[in-house]
Amino acid sequence: MEETLRFEDIPGVEWVPSPRPFITIDASKCTGCGNCLRVCLAGVFRLREKKAEVASLERCMECASCLFVCESGAVDFGWPVGGTGYRSEWG
Amino acid sequence: MSAVDYDVIVVGAGFGGPVAAKRCAEAGLSTLILERASTPGQKVISSCTIPFYGFLFGPQWIRDGDPPIERPITGIRNFFVRDGKVYATDNSFRVPGPLANRLAIGYTVYCRPFCTWLAERAVEAGAELRTSVAAVDVIMESGAVKGVVTDGGEELRCRLLIDAEGVQNILARKAGIRKTYRPEAVELCLLYDFKMAKEDIDRICGYQIEYYWAMPEEKIIAPLGEGSAVYIFPYRESIHMTIGRFLKGEEGVPVLAKELDAYYRRFFQVDRWREMYAPRTELRARIWDTCPIYAGLYQDMRSMPTFGDGVLLIGDAAGLEAAAIADGVPSAWFSAEMAAETAIEALRAGDTGASFLSRYQRRLEEHPLIPALISDTHRRDLAWARWSGDEAEMRRRVNQGWGIRLMGHLALPVLRAVYREMRRDPRVLKNWLDMFNRYHRLYA
Which A residues in the span 9-48 are in contact with B, Cβ-Cβ below 8 Å? Predict the structure, then answer.
């Protein structure tokens, strides 16, 4: 039985955690501008020592907003492993 | 030359991918669809009202089939809000009374059942569908796309790739064809799905979409020009409600989690919501996604190629969302059919090079509707109202974009498409009328 996650504040969605991380940040490129934190509705990112890092991919809805707003090209956005990540019947 | 596994690989079983795959399979091409979700449509999010022109001028088999529609839409009701109250209404864009039970300007659908239905039709036509497989890279040889690499590390080779991957454009960027959409062109939409009894929806919304507009100080919506309205879309026994905001505006990159939640909180205090909807709705889902709805309005985004050696891009991956109506499905369908047609010709000619495939781009440019839809500035032009404080002018502009005067700029492209279809087959008129009747029965 696959593990699924649900969150009360995001009803109607379930997540199967991806066995591999699918968003990564290249610390050498990150300027610490915080754009990724500003646009993410899932709270994926946090700032530590003036660099963004991925805190948790658990609530990510794979919208790639972080990718679009990263001006330094530090965000690498890929897909969760097939069959994992979020899913919803109500889109 | 290496052996190929398939003539055509289509990446993505959203709205466009299955349409392209079905046509290729029917032409006798071995066709594989790769979908990263375990069920098609489970990763597609939209307040999906598919406009009538998608059904009329899109794939005949969708029009003449029985797709899972939710509710016919016969008009747009624009509400204007000040001090938490609706003070004016513009419902001038609607199907006139006697026809309102038959003709529709669009149909609401849930993405999961609809995309599943589309994918099933492609499989019936002979396409192979592999779900739970993410295509993570392209196989490149001498600058040409020769296939994809899956997340399991499998290399799948094809003679032609049709990329229906969506707004993220991962494969097209790896193939060196496109760059990331600029944040000013991408809207993040936060969508609420509410359960609501059918008789309540029939009485309160009926068959009309509701748009709520306000001046900036009302703070129920993103600054005008960006995201613009609060939208309510009636489904069969539920409603979708959407608030969106662009990832970058004149003030830079907004703190979206905070701002979108604040818009919702204020909107839930608006009298019409509080009195009519709040007591009769139950929140079922809170979901979000990005859509590149202004990709056609920025020259650098619009001029990115929609093809390359061995690859054709369709739908959101090609930046084809309608900039004012904010719908991507009709363009995904139109582009899917034109891409499949081009793929069939290319494989018959044994030439999948970029210069042969450039005819696809020409077809997009010559399409009667796509160029008009992706370059419609009505929504962005509302940015003007942010600084003016002229509420009457804002209402006039809403009437132009989403009221009766919408007919003025939509009519010509639609008539051009009607003319094109009628010239091909005059009997299509009867099929159109049959469609409206059949969909009406599907709903009833």
Answer: 9-13, 20, 35, 38-41, 43
What is the separation, in whole angstroms, between the first and last Cα of chain B? Answer: 56
Tell me the nearest-neighbour CA distance from B413 into chain A, angstroms.
29
Domain boundaries, given as residue ranges, for chain B: 6-69+108-181+295-443, 184-291
- For residue B312, which of B172, B128, B173, B181 has the smallest C-alpha distance? B172
Would you say residue B2 has pLDDT above 70? no
Report the distance separating Cα B299 and Cα B356, nearest Å: 24
Kindly report the CATH number that applies to the domain delimited by B184-291.
3.30.70
Where does A1-91 have alpha helices with state H?
35-39, 65-69
pLDDT digits (tens, 9 = 90+) for B79-103: 999 999 999 999 999 998 888 878 9
> In this predicted structure, what is the pLDDT of residue B3?
87
Domain B6-69+108-181+295-443 sits in CATH at 3.50.50.60
User: What's the pLDDT tens digit per position in A23-50?
Assistant: 999 999 999 999 999 999 999 999 999 9
**Is the pLDDT score of A11 beyond 90?**
yes
pTM of the model: 0.97
Residues of A in contact with B183 (CB under 8 A): 68-69
B245 CB burial (10 A radius; 0-12, 13-18, 19+): buried
pLDDT of residue A61 exceeding 60, the answer is yes
Q: If you compute the radius of gyration of chain A from its CA atoms, what whole number of angstroms results?
A: 13
Q: How far is B98 from chain A (nearest CA, A)?
A: 33
Domain range annotation of chain A: 18-79
Q: What CATH number has the domain spanning A18-79?
A: 3.30.70.20
* Contact call for B168 and A77, based on CB within 8 A: yes
In this prediction, residue B1 has a pLDDT band, given cuts at 50, 70 and 90, of very low
Q: Which tens digit of pLDDT belongs to each residue from B45-68?
A: 988 899 999 999 999 999 999 999
Question: Residue A2: is its pLDDT beyond 80?
Answer: no
Strands B281-291 and B307-308: unpaired
Residue A78 CA to residue A66 CA, distance in Å, equals 11
Q: Do A63 and B289 touch (CB under 8 A)?
A: yes
Is residue B193 within 8 angstroms of chain A, CB to CB?
A: yes
> Are A41 and B285 inside 8 Å of each other by CB?
no
Contact at CB, A83 and B290, closer than 8 angstroms: no
Give the C-alpha separation, B342 to B361, whole Å. 10
Single-letter amino acid, residue A44: V
Nearest-CA distance from B46 to chain A in Å? 6
Chain B partners within 8 Å of A12 (Cβ): 193, 284-287
